[in-house]
Amino acid sequence: MTIERILPNDESAALLELTTDLADRELAPRVNDFETRGEFPRDIIRTLGRSGLLGLPYSEEYGGGGQPYEIYLQVLEVLASRWAAVAEAVSVHTLAIYPLATFGSDEQRAALLPDMLGGELLGAYCLSEPQGGSDAAALTTKAIAVGDDYVISGTKAWITHAGVADFYNIFARTGGPGPDGISCLLADAATPGINPLARERTMGLRSSPVAQIAFDDARVPADRLIGEAGTGFRIAMSALDSGRLGIAACAVGLAQAALDYAVDYAAEREQFGKPIVSFQGIGFMLADAATQISAARALTLSAARLRDAGRPYSIEAAKAKLFATDTAMKVTTDAVQVLGGYGYVADHPVERYMREAKVLQIVEGTNQIQRLVIARSLTKS
Ligand SMILES: Cc1cc2nc3c(=O)[nH]c(=O)nc-3n(C[C@H](O)[C@H](O)[C@H](O)COP(=O)(O)OP(=O)(O)OC[C@H]3O[C@@H](n4cnc5c(N)ncnc54)[C@H](O)[C@@H]3O)c2cc1C
């Protein structure tokens, strides 16, 4: 289905056209193969980098695209409609760059950002731990200052790009308990003592590697501290505000792909001598899905426009993540229903879409945590 978009200028229209072309050429023909084999498409990510799609919302001064967030999110949406794991990879990479790009010193940015924004170096964001995902402020991984280094010990869990990333953004405890004892460090993946463990066997996004990472006294130079010591939790949460919009955009793209597939199928498939789309039970389900997707897209882009305008957007980002990912779960589940038995088998992509939608309700703060954030904001003056 063609999406009517209001774009700020011809440049953004050309960028979306380039993305759609690239997604049709490079992603759509390969997704099934890579998802079945569970192989991470590093070369495809490199191609996206060379096409300028890995640093879109960051400053042109360091090789970024200088694009408004609202445009970056629509690029993600297009990618997710062809291959959710690739869109998620772009979103995670963008999240991993955020602390350096936003809180790093001029020297750190000049030294490190160009290769990250060009896609030569792939990033990962290491916040969650085996004992704590939602309660991130309770994290226990330690970073102890020793001479000119921080020595990191502990275990991170559920790290997307574990083992394939070139750099890791690590949130570790340099001080006492609670959020004020946490700092942000940027480590090269080749640092001795950074050891990715066995890959998780995930329900969906199987081409995206996820694993625990053991930090066995890994020495990271003190000049890789991002921001001040003790500000890491604030950096992590600020990064997640932006990252949640990325997940919302992935959810919109995934839901749109499921709806488009279900509509085409329902128009072709006949029962009782008629296309099943002509039955109100099916037509209304598709109508609800189309409406929910439009609402999810509008909510996501509205939050992005607040961000682009330099206005507070944290709560709107939580609402967008919550609504868009719940929409993706509902729409992909309904798409399976529209296909009947054929929806339940891997011959059609809707069963994959449904598996992929589930994780979007969990990552970057579960949807319960989004509700908590939104509920708390309601009682603040
Ligand atoms: C495929 C995948 C990729 C991931 N990638 C990354 C990554 O790259 N980097 C990273 O740091 N993390 C990553 N994560 C981790 C993810 O962010 C966490 O799984 C998530 O934050 C939830 O943490 P948890 O799994 O420990 O669940 P828990 O925090 O144990 O939560 C369990 C359940 O309790 C609910 N719950 C918890 N607290 C409350 C509360 N106060 N009120 C109501 N309900 C509550 C949760 O919503 C959930 O339903 C990834 C996870 C997955 C599955």
Structure description:
This protein is of the alpha+beta class. Helix content is 51%, strand content 15%. The protein is built from 11 helices and 10 strands. The protein has helices at 10-27, 31-37, 42-50, 69-82, 84-103, 106-117, 232-268, 280-308, 314-339, 350-360, 367-378, and strands spanning 123-126, 142-146, 149-160, 167-173, 182-188, 194-199, 210-221, 225-226, 270-271, 274-275. Flavin-adenine dinucleotide (FAD) binds at residues 92, 125-128, 133-134, 158-160, 202, 210, 359, 362-366, 368-369, 372.
The best one-word shape is globular
Distance between the termini: 42 Å
Give unreliable regions as ranges.
none
Strand tally: 10
Adjacency order of strands in the biggest sheet: 1-4-5-8
Molecules bound to protein: flavin-adenine dinucleotide
Q: Work out the strand percent.
A: 15-25%
What is the oligomeric state here? single chain
> Given the helix and strand composition, which structural class is it?
alpha+beta
Relevant terms:
381 residues, 11 helices, four-stranded antiparallel β-sheet, binds flavin-adenine dinucleotide, four-stranded mixed β-sheet, 10 strands, alpha+beta
Topology (elements, then pairings):
Layout: H1 10-27, H2 31-37, H3 42-50, H4 69-82, H5 84-103, H6 106-117, E1 123-126, E2 142-146, E3 149-160, E4 167-173, E5 182-188, E6 194-199, E7 210-221, E8 225-226, H7 232-268, E9 270-271, E10 274-275, H8 280-308, H9 314-339, H10 350-360, H11 367-378
Parallel strand pairs: 1-4
Antiparallel strand pairs: 2-3, 3-7, 4-5, 5-8, 6-7, 9-10
Helix pairs in contact: 1-4, 4-5, 4-7, 4-8, 5-7, 7-8, 7-9, 7-10, 8-9, 9-10, 9-11
Bound molecules: flavin-adenine dinucleotide (FAD).
